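Reading group handout, session on sequence-to-structure problems. Before we discuss, look at one worked example. The prompt was deliberately terse, the way you'd type it at a terminal:

> structure Small RNA 2'-O-methyltransferase

The input record follows.
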Amino acid sequence: MLLTVTTTRRPATDLGYLLVKHPDRVHAFDVPTGTAYVMYPEATDDRCTAALVLDVDPQRLRAQKDAFELSQYVNDRPYAASSLLASALAKVFRSALRGASKDRPELAASVLPLEIRVPALRGTSELVTRLFAPLGWTVTATPIPLEAELGGDSRYVDVRLVGELRLADALNHLYILLPVLDDAKHYWVAPDEIEKLLRSGAGWLAGHPEKVLIARRYLAHRRSLATTALQLLEAEEPATEEEEELPVARKAPLAEQRRDAVVAALTEVNAARVLDLGCGGGALLTALLKNRQFTEIVGADVSSRALEQAARRLRLDRLPERQKDRIKLIQTALTYRDDRLRGFDAAVLMEVIEHVDLPRLPALEAAVFGHARPTAVVVTTPNVEYNVHYEGLTGMRHSDHRFEWTRAEFADWASRIATEYGYAVTVRGVGDPDEITGSPTQLALFTISTEVTA
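And the output record:
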């Protein structure tokens, strides 16, 4: 699928500074459903076009529960702009979405002549116009015809948007409205999607005549989420001079709260040499690298692809030598003993144990707590009792989860591990707690007991 952004403001090649992508290169990014590429089919002082191309791997698409057996292969997802493209846009143009530019801050804040092209987008000309025209775009949405023998138009349109806006505003319009037009998100929608909607819709969504439709579709028609979002939008009023001087607290997504809780636990035990076991794409590693307390950081994962993603996320090839010397990525299976993991101040298993088959869990316990035996271990896992707050969730939070524990089950497991391997343990919640069901995430901090001698 394809999206292009064009400007004619001279020198037009400054678009590369705003997108933080050099016009002379082809840039590749690994995303959960394939590979995203950024390239410039034209780059002159008079006109510059950046193209975002998403190459979807059909085998990495998850079929819907009620779909037919081959639906992950027979679908329009690799071709028509959708929530997949919006997610790729958010990852590839992250700083541009925020309106940040280290090299051209004044240009990032300026209104630019822009042209957006999406050659294949699910929707009708009428709906595309209703969504984009109120935001200052001149909209051309041409229906794509079916094959001649079938006759008529398909359910897709070729969209061209022309207007004068800040680049950040244009990208945020696309980030929200592409999934709205698609009306079929490729991932399960949780309450933290409200925060994404409000953040990217800041300054325009509250006054949009189609805000009800946008909220409902963006939040996958989950009534309670859409109602909450609309109530928050209705509460937006121009701030008084006194209010503008006060900082506005932002509710952090659960994933961010979880990372912060893990880093806080590591700080609590004064860890300097840290293992991130099951590091995945490197979200925690990035946070650890920013903290100078952690002098040696090792990310370990059984998946070579995950390690490649982590390396790209960390930009290992561009890190200064002093930073690069602090971090290392290794491939290993956590259910086997590995001498490279011994001797560390702390190890983290963040949202890892629930991905291990229960019969294999004792092997992981022995490898981590018995053989590697770090001075401290931080473990986080979902609290299954909290799942009742996720509307529409009928199973576990992720299709790859092998189990999810109640607070009592997690506490019993943590107590058994502490007794068996000579650790003391404290258990706490992470995320906004509910009086009955507790917090969405539970965390155990293990420290080698001073009462146990080697």
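Points for discussion. First: Confidence is low (pLDDT under 50) at residues 63-71, 237-250. Second: DSSP finds 16 helices and 14 strands in the chain.
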